[in-house]
Write a structure and sequence with these properties.
Length: 414
């Protein structure tokens, strides 16, 4: 049966047009159909987050359908109906409204940054549709009160703790500067940063916020220099970070920097190829070495990574693959525990969820979110094989995960 899963998933790979109903996500064509809406960024700024998401989500759905879902006492299958948020909050809102109003979805899933998950959750709250989301920072998602929406991501404290694993391996003056945009995610990161740094023995410095999409970081670099900052931490898009880093090199101050830990900008290999910073550190949401297993079929994280490679042909497994799979683990558990598509039953099932998944235990708190553990990764370029790899240099938050290396210095191309 595993072979049929892979063959069907490969078929799904070739059919990824916007807003197309993915009928091939059903293991068979009998039984009740559960219409699941899915909004994620296929295009736009965060398209790298959504690359291969639909293919691998369909693979997880095939596994769930094969394992068996019972609704109202009869066998049921999930059918995925996708829509493109275009990496834009307004488009995400419109996509969610269309799925609910015109596609008649029974339940919603969504993922890939606050620009998609937050507006989709807001639409579901307004229309009374249960929504299950993953991989947005918890605090950015939890800015609103939620009754129908549930989220599994990571909180800023965990993110900063993963960064600290890198900071602690430097021989620096313990002065850490924070890089953040003037937006919700940046403000949340900055507000947590100061107290976290100082309670852990570091001197925190804020050189000022920048506007989203800004390309001139001259003032921020000048401010960092005045405070003799030697470690940098922040949350930036890959485009913003590249402008900042290139100007840091041009200024010459990069030679004083011992480590850079940045969220979002360098999660994926295409992003690090674009940024081209050897030694950049980031948080790791999930990877094939995680000591976790699927709640659907018992597959290990390494086995799931093998399936991703077989389906997509990609040897580099993105951190989002585990979260894509886990979103369906959550959906599968909620549907089976509810045994019904009635909103009240789905809500009760989500509220009482206690599930071990490939991204860790999912158990929603009173604000309807679950915080997942993170590791610390560093991107290193192999000059001989002409290939990037991400080394695990910190694993304190994940029991059983081993580090593969220690912090390497930034290798500068001046």
């Amino acid at each position: 049966m595993l072979l049929s899963l892979l063959m069907l998933s490969a078929t799904a790979c070739s059919n990824t047009s916007t807003k197309v109903e993915s009928s091939d996500s059903s293991a068979n064509d009998t039984g009740k159909i559960i219409r699941v809406g899915f909004v994620y960024p296929k295009t736009g700024t965060y398209a790298s987050f959504g690359e291969y998401t639909e293919e691998f989500t369909n693979y997880a759905i095939l596994a769930a359908n094969e394992a068996g879902i019972t609704i109202d006492g009869e066998s049921a299958n999930i059918s995925l109906i996708t829509a493109d948020s275009q990496s834009d909050p307004k488009e995400a809102k419109r996509a969610a409204e269309n799925l609910i109003d015109n596609k008649n979805v029974d339940i919603m899933i969504t993922s890939k940054t606050a620009d998609t998950t937050v507006p989709v959750s807001k639409v579901c709250e307004k229309k009374g549709v249960v929504c299950l989301s993953v991989d947005t920072p918890d605090e950015a998602w939890a800015v609103d009160t939620h009754k129908y929406s549930f989220h599994a991501g990571f909180d800023t404290e965990s993110e900063l703790a993963s960064f600290k694993s890198a900071w602690d391996q430097t021989e620096s003056n313990l002065r850490v500067g924070v890089l953040h945009a003037n937006d919700t995610e940046g403000s949340i990161f900055k507000n947590s940063f100061t107290s976290f740094a100082e309670k852990n023995g570091y001197t925190a410095y804020d050189p000022g916020a920048y506007q989203p999409g800004q390309t001139d970081f001259t003032n921020i670099i000048r401010n960092l220099k005045t405070q003799k900052v030697q470690v940098l931490a922040g949350v930036m898009s890959s485009r913003e970070f590249k402008f900042f880093y290139d100007q840091l090199k041009l200024d010459g101050y990069i030679t004083e920097i011992k480590a850079i830990t940045v969220a979002k900008a360098a999660l994926f290999e295409p992003d690090i190829e674009y940024i081209d910073v050897n030694g950049l550190c980031t948080e790791v949401w999930w990877n094939p070495d995680f000591p976790t297993v699927s709640s659907i079929n018992g597959f290990t994280s390494s086995k799931i990574a093998e399936q991703f490679e077989a389906i997509t042909g990609q040897s580099t497994i993105p951190v989002t693959a585990g979260y894509d799979y886990a979103n369906i683990e959550i959906l599968y558990a909620v549907l089976n525990n509810a045994g019904s598509l009635e909103t009240s039953a789905l809500l009760d099932a989500a509220k009482n969820l206690d599930l071990d998944t490939v991204i860790g235990k999912i158990k929603y708190n009173s604000e309807n979110y679950s915080s997942q553990p993170l590791a610390t990764g560093q991107w290193v370029y192999d000059d001989i094989n002409k290939k990037w790899s991400q080394e695990i240099i910190g694993a304190d938050q994940i029991e059983g995960l081993e580090t593969t290396n220690t912090l390497a210095p930034l290798l500068l191309k001046l």
